[in-house]
Amino acid sequence: xxxxxxxxxxxxxxxxxxxxxxxxxxxxxxxxxxxxxxxxxxxxxxxxxxxxxxxxxxxxxxxxxxxxxxxxxxxxxxxxxxxxxxxxxxxxxxxxxxxxxxxxxxxxxxxxxxxxxxxxxxxxxxxxxxxxxxxxxxxxxxxxxxxxxxxxxxxxxxxxxxxxxxxxxxxxxxxxxxxxxxxxxxxxxxxxxxxxxxxxxxxxxxxxxxxxxxxxxxxxxxxxxxxxxxxx
Length: 232
Prior knowledge:
Order of helices and strands: HHHHHHHH
Structural class: mainly alpha
Number of strands: 0
Largest sheet: none
Helix content: 55-70%
């Protein structure tokens, strides 16, 4: 386990060193973090699971390809290595991690959309189409239309999701909202129970009887809390 954590930290450090060759120099890499977290323990198993989940979400948008997965995960590690310096030890570490990476992921989607809109046509075809216009003009126009439609669909889907999430959270009690946040942050049932002052069994019931049905009603795919380490 410790070897895995050190390996993940090393990969993030290598990515930072590689990016330091760009015009925009990256700020110094922190050597310690609040709550006793160190660069060697920052990328533990649960943090890596959240990183992989965020990379999956980006690939599922269709804007990123599967072969980009390693680059996406490394970018998430880099941003987490910086943003963890702002972590408040009084709050849940993994909820903070999930929030930071979700915001970064949204920015990456927006940036990719802008790139696609600016991307020039690669293929050059001079043969005229039956209409008399070169094929390249027709292809460029079709590509631009498709990109715009895709961008509109993504924006609409994001707005619908944000609206649904807002309405769902409004329908939940403060305790259930907190449970939702910790589940999305990768916390176990036991950790959630301790945080909200409920028994593990009560947390399970609230998730299965209240939160899960409501999430399905609003069009979300329910996420299970992490079971590891829950044996008491």
